[in-house]
DNA sequence: CTGAAAGCGCTAACAT
DNA sequence: ATGTTAGCGCTTTCAG
């Protein structure tokens, strides 16, 4: 049988209030009784119940994390950083894979609320973002992670997607590419990345073809299909910007299946700088998000909320960084020949 | 302000006991009042507090999952399956990355206990497994996942590691390999896989060299170092069995850095059949764990525990399956020449 | 079929 | 410096 605060109080010959005070280090307790209570706690292996304390003290020391799929390396890596930051502050994380399905997301949201989590981190996509409204009205802080939804008045910690797209395309253009395709995932991030890319093209006086810009989901297969679509025709792009690494891997596989050499026949640039980009052959050039910083900031914001009930909403935008791999190359006469 | 059971009771003109009964579908409630209460609940957007109910009803609808690192694709994939099974039963999962450090693991264990989770799934490694003892004595069910520690009397759901190692080596032998190296991760699984492999060699009358069997941690870098160690000498194995896909990727990179062609100059076989094995070039031959089945069984076992307080401990061993990739090849005269 | 009442383990005034 | 007491929101006998 697990021992309770009563057992400790009785064994130590004090009241439960005193025990509570030494546990929480509140109030004034003489060093002598403090020591004694501590000793008894040790002896009885007393473990304060988080559940009971949450019912009064208002804290569950738990955050909820909604992501599309923990099996996706980008989210797994983000989850790891978030968890580390949370643990450092004594919090743990409930993970919720939504597959970007609104219904499942809402179910999780309500479940998390019923569990009285101390904060929710949203890193998944909603078809209908207004579903979030009821939760934004709550006491529980909500933070959008790696995602910016302009229409929503909510704390946001993200990377500058527009800038990332711009950097990717700018880099390709500098390498001499003029025929550039984009495979993006549906959702706000994808759109911003596309826009950023288009701006870079516009500034360079390059036009783009709408059939070379496709929106898909974010599996490898989606990237494969999207790229295949562009590459099968005789006139094809000399470079493709895939808006995340999973898609980029799909693009790479499509190129390989079509007998195209990367980067000789096709340059590919990804986004996220996940494990994937480092293990494919050739190593992907990719736009890196500072996930670690983002995770740190996210958790800090959540923690600050605990003390300061209502901080005004803030959006923090981190800058992405291009990581050079071997999947991109300058356009050469040879690659223009075919 | 969130509405409580009292608000609903008052608005519906009934007692909180009645509301509780319709929420939990217990006792006998007339259809008429049930409807009314339900309607009021809807109107007031009443969300029963999991915390309060856990304090009495004994259920938090939460499982804890200890794994070495969620950023490792094998664990991320396992977590996803476990989560799906858990959600189907109304449970959610707290993830805990321990990096296989005993201290951190124990901290998490105690935290989970304080949170009164309804079960713990252990998928990480302990240097000192006896640290688990105190938790095995508890009410809270504990399950070892994808790991078998013979010395521990605990529910276990795992893959037949010995058999997996056997299959891997048997396959290589059938391809004509005689010079076989093994890179394994420290821990019970790694050991079993090595033993299985050794048995296959023994049965085939092949001897092994102890310097070609190395134990390391489980990062890509570890696999790289381990392989490099074996491959740099003039006399090197013609095939390497890496005891998980991360290691296999490291082995592959080492081979590439040394100018060895895979599979022509070196065959590589991995373990786990994760995403990684599918995206590297060449695609890895690997031993697949039926993670989905294992996850299903694990959660079911945990759930059964809720009703039947003390089921006798059981170990369930699933059979692995070899997935043929392009990283293995028969020994040919050409590859024997160098 | 419904309600009153006694906790679950803990926190936080308020007394002493 | 320490103890008393009133809840937190809900479940569960036990009466009615």
Which secondary structure elements does this structure contain, and how are they paired or packed?
The structure is a homodimer of 338-residue chains.
Chain A: H1 5-12, H2 16-24, H3 31-44, H4 50-57, E1 62-67, H5 73-88, E2 92-97, H6 102-114, E3 119-123, H7 133-136, E4 142-145, E5 155-159, H8 161-174, E6 180-185, H9 188-203, E7 213-216, H10 220-231, E8 239-242, H11 245-257, E9 267-272, H12 275-279, E10 285-288, H13 291-307, E11 315-318, E12 321-323, H14 333-337
Parallel strand pairs in A: 1-2, 1-3, 3-4, 4-5, 5-11, 6-7, 6-8, 8-9, 9-10
Antiparallel strand pairs in A: 10-12
Helix pairs in contact in A: 1-2, 1-3, 5-13, 8-9, 10-11
Chain A binds a DNA duplex (16 and 16 nucleotides) through residues 4-6, 14-21, 23-24, 26-30, 33, 48-49, 51-58.
Features of the shown structure:
elongated, 12 strands, disordered C terminus, 338 residues, 17% strand, alpha/beta, six-stranded parallel sheet, homodimer, DNA-binding, 14 helices, six-stranded mixed sheet
Describe the structure.
2 copies of one chain form a homodimer. Chain A has helices at about 5-10, 15-25, 30-45, 50-55, 75-90, 100-115, 135, 160-175, 190-205, 220-230, 245-255, 275-280, 290-305, 335, and strands at about 60-65, 90-95, 120-125, 140-145, 155-160, 180-185, 215, 240, 265-270, 285-290, 315-320, 320-325. Helices cover about 45% and strands about 15% of the residues of chain A. Chain A has a 6-stranded parallel sheet with strand order 2-1-3-4-5-11, sandwiched between helices. The first copy, chain A, is elongated. The first copy, chain A, is of the alpha/beta class and about 350 residues long. Chain A has 14 helices and 12 strands. In chain A, helix 5 packs across helix 13. Chains A and B meet through helix 4, helix 5, strand 2, helix 6 and helix 11 of A and helix 4, helix 5, strand 2, helix 6 and helix 11 of B. Strand 2 (about 90-95) of chain A pairs antiparallel with strand 2 of chain B, so a sheet runs across the interface. Chain A binds a DNA duplex (16 and 16 nucleotides) through helix 2 and helix 4.
